[in-house]
Design a protein that fits this description.
By secondary structure, the protein is mostly helical. Helices cover 59% and strands 2% of the residues. A hairpin with a 2-residue loop joins strand 2 and strand 3 (67-68). The chain is globular, with a radius of gyration of 22 Å. The structure holds amidocarboxymethyldethia coenzyme *A.
Length: 434
């Protein structure tokens, strides 16, 4: 049994007890009010679900189980998953055990490749990823155990098994898609006894003479793993999982949300914007040119990708961490240099544009600062991973860990099926006092 399994056997009864105590003590107390604007506006700020794995503080950014992200930036993905799920920082023995357990499950059935090979050559890599993973749903231990009459108390166990399998196969499927979709040659296999980050870098087939690309992959998978429970991907996965759909169905549903341009696809859009900027001003734009270009984008009715956030009100620490990586490894890369320069200019542009919006009677832009997607693509681009449409796949391999940790916790404590109440506009007009 993995050390993670034993740890959960110890923790799950404590979680259940805590949940029961909280419900007994606070069950009928109010924790949020909802305005009509929030109901029409994506439920922004409405506290309506519980997520233990991480928290996004508007002025601090991502905090995983109490640890601000930049304080734990050296974690490997195996550590991240353990921390997300248990709340405890793993030691070296746990990391070794996690690597062993992932290795045991790192096999993709042949039928997955057949399905992917049959897809149209110009399919989006995200469509290929979710199709590949969904094809594997027949492997679900949860569904099997459920159909054999598993007791409620046991739900988390096959959910954990499915989670470990999904974490192990996702980088293999994702790397296979990269090589297949972009004509990179034969698939490269998983190397036994190595960690997820190293293997993903290796299977993509990117040249990595100094090992820094593998380091970037570890950092990338760690940074994108979770962003509390209300974002589109986590929230969708949570809702689908609440119907007791297994982890394959639920994670794929979440990833379909991640594929939207306002969510995980922004990294693709963002690098495109930076490259266009570099092309237009050969040799790299000046700050003045960036300012003009940014205003052009905004006045053309488009958003500046990689800037703004639904919750954050400061520079995303994930962006700060990636900026630090680029400055350390390739400060003079022309694309990275533009990303760093854009960071100096765009927050002020957005602030001025926000004032213009307000004068014109529109709402302000709530956050002028970069989010994770503003810089991540430039790092991948440096290593020769230049196919923008692939970037959300990398995000997905990572985000699956957060979604899976949340699913396991929910099945462990017995979270109910999601079912908020909706009302129509007529109901609002009739029942809400202006
Ligand atoms: N450029 C231009 N306008 C922006 C903007 C930006 N970067 N960020 C916000 N705005 C606009 C919104 O489009 C909205 O305009 P509208 O009222 O005319 O529709 C207005 O400002 C108010 O929006 P908000 O309250 O500041 O943000 P939000 O919570 O509604 O949306 C987000 C958040 C991320 C969708 C938005 O900031 C955006 O579109 N950013 C660019 C895309 C992006 O980077 N997405 C990635 C987010 C991180 C992730 O999930 N991976």
């Amino acid at each position: 049994m993995p050390k993670l399994y034993n740890k959960l056997e110890e923790l799950v009864p404590q979680w259940r007890k805590e949940r029961a105590n909280i419900l007994k003590k606070y069950g009928s107390a109010k924790m949020s009010d909802v305005t009509v604007a929030q109901a029409y506006g994506g439920m922004r700020g409405v506290k309506g679900m519980i997520c233990e794995t991480s928290l996004v503080e508007p002025n601090k950014g991502l905090i995983i189980r109490g640890y601000p992200l930049l304080d734990i930036k050296d974690m490997w993905p195996e550590d991240t998953f353990y921390l997300l799920l248990t709340g405890e920082k793993p030691d070296k023995a746990v990391r070794r055990d996690m690597i062993r357990e992932i290795n045991k499950r790192a096999k993709v059935p042949g039928y997955v490749w057949k399905v992917l090979e049959a897809m149209p050559k110009n399919s989006h890599p995200m469509t290929m990823l979710t199709t590949g993973l969904l094809t594997m749903e027949r492997e679900s231990e949860f569904r099997k155990a459920y159909s054999e009459g598993m007791k409620k108390e046991e739900y988390w166990k096959p959910m954990l098994e499915d989670a470990l399998r999904i974490i192990a196969v996702m980088p293999i499927i994702a790397a296979g898609i990269y090589r297949m979709r972009f004509n990179k040659g034969r698939r490269i296999g998983w190397q036994k006894d190595k960690d997820i980050g190293w293997n993903y870098a290796h299977m993509l087939g990117i040249k990595d003479p100094d090992g820094s690309f593998a380091k970037l992959m570890r950092l990338y998978l760690h940074f994108h793993s979770d962003h509390e429970g209300g974002n589109v991907s986590a929230n969708t996965c949570h809702t689908v999982g609440s119907a007791l759909s297994d982890a394959y169905y639920a994670v794929v549903a979440g990833l379909n949300g991640l594929a939207g341009p306002l969510h995980g696809l922004a990294n693709q859009e963002c690098l495109g914007w930076i490259i266009d900027l570099n092309k237009k001003f050969r040799g790299g734009p000046s700050e003045k040119q960036i300012r003009e270009y940014a205003f052009q984008t905004l006045r053309g009715g488009q958003v500046i990708p990689g800037y703004g956030h639904a919750v954050l009100r400061v520079t995303d620490p994930r962006f700060a961490g990636f900026l630090e990586f680029g400055k350390k490894h390739f400060p003079n890369d022309p694309v990275f240099r533009t990303v760093a320069r854009v960071f100096k200019v765009v927050p002020k542009v957005l602030s001025e544009f926000s004032e213009e919006r307000v004068k014109a009677g529109k709402g302000p832009i709530a956050n002028f600062w970069p989010n994770v997607d503003a810089g991540s693509g430039s790092l991948l681009h440096h290593y020769g991973l230049k196919e923008f449409s692939y970037y959300t796949v990398l995000f997905s391999v990572s985000r699956a860990m957060g979604m899976l940790a949340q699913l396991i916790w929910n099945r462990a404590v017995g979270t109910a099926i999601t079912r908020p109440k909706s009302v129509g506009s007529a109901w609002v007009k009739k029942n809400v006092k202006a």
